[in-house]
Design goal:
This protein is α/β, with parallel strands linked by helices. The protein folds into 2 domains: 149 residues, Aspartate Aminotransferase, domain 1; 227 residues, 3-Layer(aba) Sandwich (Aspartate Aminotransferase, domain 2), CATH 3.40.640. The protein is 35% helix and 13% strand. The chain is built from 14 helices and 14 strands. Strands 2-10-9-6-5-3-4 form a 7-stranded mixed sheet, with helices on both faces. Strands 11-12-14 form a 3-stranded antiparallel sheet, covered by helices on one side. A hairpin with a 2-residue loop joins strand 7 and strand 8. Helix 2 packs antiparallel against helix 9, helix 4 packs across helix 5 and helix 10 runs parallel beside helix 14. It starts with a helix and ends with a helix. 47% of the residues are buried.
């Protein structure tokens, strides 16, 4: 049956969701055993963990099992499992309609989508990217022998800084890959201006940004193209999958050829390609989850409001805010642990892990501090001061449809104990 909490969330007005208290009856059961009150109650000091089972940052959202299984039966009965089947065609249509874009080219995963988009744009030489992102953004370039050049971020938005991009342009630069970090739009207008002045291609990694907007326009409509990830950990998933969306018809047709070995009809190969196709069962999951998308967002927004209220009085920890005038998916609860907080970010994460709360140090330590880039650019940190500082301070907390309000209160209680004792 459909998750009762999702049904309750749907009945609330979106405008009030940030402050909606989810009742115990309509929410999943709380997994918290107890709430620590003093340092001795912390699991790192030998106490029983707050949670008997691990609480993950990105536990998958799952829509109606009945509707998904009905689609799965249709797939099995048709015996059309892949190769641009009816589920895939419907899925691409629904994505286009949702985002208001002309073309959606669904792929087997977001990384392959990045690689195909990169090749379709004929990027080569050097391409400027942020280091503060998931490493796949850089790997998609390096895998194709393109040199990722890391530019610094704006510490306020944590997105790519256009001035930093300008400083990294060389005669070998052919493109820019912006990232809509946390689902908040990158500075698309400024980056578009930089790209135009320097004759560069511009694409965006929108892995965090499905259903989010910038200036009232859904992400997916900017640059030459934008890439989404529909991995299981994303708030909207297709089990595993991704897509490139674009308003450039010629670019879209090129990518459709590339994802299917370059075939144009039976036995007619006209372009070099690979196997990047999304399967029918993944498209079926995507269609099912699209139908429940508003519920997922409503739950995320309620959790965001609950965390915000619980953390409001805690000094030394600030929570990343979303612009309420835009569409947001509220997928990430992002904390900036400042030097004012009594314990370090890493000590905070260790304490939460001991309680079975698997908070994450996104995107630590930055791509420039990972291999092979650390060996390629041993001094990259000198031009990435904001990236280094943010990477050392950010922690991401669990959210999603599996979270109960009591779970959120219990998680924040650990931070309160840490804040009250320098020896915690």
């Amino acid at each position: 049956m459909k998750n009762d909490r999702m049904a309750t969330a749907r009945s609330k007005s979106v405008g009030n969701l940030a402050a909606v208290p989810m009742s115990t009856a309509s929410a999943p059961p709380s997994r918290a055993r107890k709430t620590p009150r003093v340092a001795a109650d912390l699991a790192i000091h030998g106490a029983v963990p707050l949670f008997a089972e691990a609480v993950h940052v990105g536990r998958p959202n799952v829509g109606s099992s009945e509707r998904f299984l009905a689609r799965a039966r249709d797939i099995l009965e048709s015996r059309w499992l892949s190769n641009n089947g009816p589920m895939l065609i419907e899925f691409e249509t629904r994505i286009r309609e949702k985002l208001g874009v002309k073309n959606c080219v669904a792929m087997c995963n977001g990384t392959i989508a990045l690689e195909i988009a990169t090749r379709a744009l004929d990027l080569r030489g050097e391409v400027i990217v942020p280091s503060y992102t998931f490493v796949a953004t850089a790997h998609a370039l390096q895998w194709q022998e393109i040199t990722p050049i890391f530019a610094d971020i704006d510490p306020g938005t944590q997105n790519l800084d256009p001035d930093a991009v300008r400083r990294m342009i060389t005669p070998r630069t052919t493109g820019i890959v912006g990232v809509h970090l946390w689902g908040r739009g990158a500075p698309v207008e400024e980056l578009a201006e930089v790209a135009a002045v320097n004759n560069l291609r511009l694409m965006f990694d929108a892995s965090h940004g499905f259903g989010c907007s910038h200036g009232g326009t859904f992400l997916g409509n900017f640059g030459d193209c934008e890439v989404f990830s529909f991995h299981a950990t994303k708030f909207f998933n297709t089990f595993e999958g991704g897509a490139v969306v674009t308003n450039d018809d010629r670019l879209a047709e090129k990518m459709r050829l590339m994802r299917n070995f370059g075939f144009s009809g039976y036995d007619h190969v006209i372009y070099p390609g690979t196997n990047g196709k999304m399967t029918e069962i993944a498209a079926a999951m995507g269609l099912t989850n699209l139908e429940d998308l508003d519920d997922f967002v409503a739950i995320n927004r309620a959790n965001y409001g609950a965390y915000r209220d619980e953390l409001r009085s805690l000094r030394g920890v600030s929570m990343l805010a979303f612009d309420e005038s835009e569409h947001n998916n509220y997928q990430y609860i992002v904390l900036d642990v400042t030097p004012e907080f009594p314990v370090s970010r890493d000590r905070l994460v260790d304490a939460l892990h001991a309680e079975n709360v698997l908070a994450r140090k996104y995107f630590w330590p930055g791509c420039h501090n990972m291999e092979p880039y650390r060996s390629f650019y041993p001094h990259a940190g000198l031009v990435l001061p904001h990236t280094n500082r943010i990477a050392e301070r950010v922690v991401v907390l669990p959210t999603g449809s599996s979270m109960h309000p009591d779970d959120i209160r219990a998680i924040v209680s650990v931070l309160r104990v840490l804040a009250s004792s320098r020896t915690a």
